[in-house]
């Protein structure tokens, strides 16, 4: 017997325009969980995939990798979940399970990872994402949503949130008040500000536009704002930060940001730039500084950030829209006209 029929929204070509599409989920395997999609976040990566800007997109493509749903069917071997549980899926739905990364709970770095959509699952079927009435996912790649968290709040944490949390958690277990810089102000970085503040860090938002100043300080509670286009402000802030989380997905010269770091400071890249970035070797050498990178987070860290979110009583800033609005939402996201993340109310939408 085949899996169930679902209705989704898919891109059909490089315009990336989304429209209704129906397909059949894979047959429910013994360790599979089928869930009805409730909410799904929308992200820049979705847009790049929809337009075939990353690696060859297979159309029709159903995007969506910040998915929250309610369990409706369980494979025979599933013990971890029960019908009615609220679960989440991020960027991954599979990995080899045997390599060093997989064995050390860092499956996001597995060379055989299977992405939530536009990838090929172990059985040869193509993966499709959360802009869909339902999904089938192996239990190992599902996380449990704590009861005290609203499902729509959780959606952006499953990619954007864990992308910020995973590199920041190295600074968590300490009484030291870290001086943090968050570069850029968008989906990932707004959550990074909230997370770093909740970890007790002193947080400076660094942006090229002072339009963001008020929101950074007042809405997100950052401690300071640094205008990167002001040479005076940048000079005054030299050698002042322990780390910078760099979320900018565009080409930018790293020299001026590296100068903000203290000796032994770290610049952590999480935004994928389309071309090589530049820095001068002395920027690193004359301050024992490090440039490093981080990719999403592990399944364990996804569970952790939800506990962290609940314990600290944090709230992400989202705009909830119906799926009929999705093309418009992408258009607005592209011109940064969202504070700070769109979340699709999939279950509340008429998918057809
Ligand atoms: Zn692996
Ligand atoms: Zn994402």
UniProtKB/TrEMBL annotation:
It comes from the Eukaryota. Transmembrane segments: none annotated. Coiled coil: none annotated. One of its GO terms (molecular function) is oxidoreductase activity, acting on the CH-OH group of donors, NAD or NADP as acceptor. Residues 10-344 form the Enoyl reductase (ER) domain. Its cofactor is Zn(2+). Gene3D superfamilies: Medium-chain alcohol dehydrogenases, catalytic domain, NAD(P)-binding Rossmann-like Domain. GO terms for biological process: lignin biosynthetic process. Belongs to the zinc-containing alcohol dehydrogenase family. This is Cinnamyl alcohol dehydrogenase. It comes from Quillaja saponaria (Soap bark tree).
């Amino acid at each position: 017997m085949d899996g169930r029929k679902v209705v989704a929204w898919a891109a059909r070509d490089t315009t990336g325009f989304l429209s209704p599409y129906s397909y059949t989920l894979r047959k429910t395997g013994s360790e599979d969980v089928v869930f009805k999609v409730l909410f799904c976040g929308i992200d820049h990566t979705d847009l790049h995939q929809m337009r075939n800007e990353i690696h060859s997109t297979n159309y029709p493509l159903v995007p969506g990798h910040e998915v929250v749903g309610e369990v409706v069917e369980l494979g025979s071997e599933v013990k971890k979940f029960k019908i009615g549980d609220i679960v989440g899926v991020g960027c991954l739905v599979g990995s080899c399970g045997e390599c060093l990364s997989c064995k050390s709970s860092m499956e996001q770095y597995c060379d055989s990872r299977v992405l939530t959509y536009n990838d090929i699952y172990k059985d040869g079927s193509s993966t499709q994402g959360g802009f869909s009435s339902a999904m089938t996912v192996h239990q190992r790649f599902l996380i449990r949503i704590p009861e005290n968290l609203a499902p729509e709040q959780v959606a952006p944490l499953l990619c954007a949130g864990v992308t910020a949390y995973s590199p920041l958690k190295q600074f968590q277990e300490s009484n030291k008040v870290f001086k943090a810089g968050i570069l850029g102000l968008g989906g990932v970085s707004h959550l990074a500000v909230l997370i770093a503040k909740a970890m007790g860090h002193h947080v400076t938002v660094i942006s090229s536009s002072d339009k963001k100043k008020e929101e950074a300080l007042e809405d997100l509670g950052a401690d300071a704002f640094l205008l990167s286009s002001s040479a005076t402000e940048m000079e005054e802030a030299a050698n002042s930060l322990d780390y910078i989380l760099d979320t900018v997905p565009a080409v930018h010269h790293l020299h001026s940001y590296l100068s903000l770091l203290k000796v032994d400071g770290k610049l952590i890249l999480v935004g994928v730039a389309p071309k090589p970035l530049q820095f001068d070797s002395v920027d690193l050498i004359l301050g024992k500084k490090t440039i490093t990178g981080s990719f999403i987070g592990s399944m364990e860290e996804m569970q952790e950030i939800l506990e962290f979110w609940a314990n600290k009583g944090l709230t992400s800033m989202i705009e909830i829209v119906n799926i009929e609005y999705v093309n418009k939402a992408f258009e607005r996201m592209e011109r940064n006209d969202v504070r700070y993340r769109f979340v699709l109310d999939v279950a509340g939408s008429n998918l057809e």
